[in-house]
Design a protein that fits this description.
With about 110 residues, the protein is an all-alpha fold. The protein has helices at about 5-15, 25-45, 50-55, 60-80, 85-100. About 70% of the residues lie in helices and about 0% in strands. The protein is globular, with a radius of gyration of 17 Å.
């Protein structure tokens, strides 16, 4: 997946609809949170076992994929409008995470 090309497609999509005035970092961050909440809502009352089983549930696969895609698309737009180089940010964060959570003292997340 070419993230830069996808960001360009999203810019064009918004421009064709004259949405640029609404696509501020603040609004995109808020929209991202709404979409993440919609994704969480699918899993809200599931047991851990039920949430693991969604992979094999055709009735849930598409709604989950739709919400995951919405989250990704808003995240890409937010990064674009905030001037974040995604490749550099991810590489930098992976290094920070490795330093913060070294293998020798790895414990399950809370």
């Amino acid at each position: 997946m070419d993230l830069s090309a996808l960001q360009q497609r999203l810019r064009s999509f918004a421009a064709e609809r004259q949405w640029q005035p609404f696509h501020t970092p603040k609004n995109l961050a808020m929209a991202l949170m709404v979409e993440a909440a919609e994704l969480a809502e699918i899993f809200q009352w599931m047991t851990p076992e039920q949430s693991l089983a969604v992979r094999d549930d055709p009735a849930l696969k598409e709604p989950i994929a739709d919400e995951v895609a919405d989250v990704l698309l808003y995240l890409l737009q937010l990064a674009d409008h905030a001037g974040v180089d995604l490749h550099a940010a991810v590489e930098r964060k992976l290094v920070k995470n490795a330093a913060k959570h070294p293998v020798a003292r790895a414990v399950p997340p809370i």
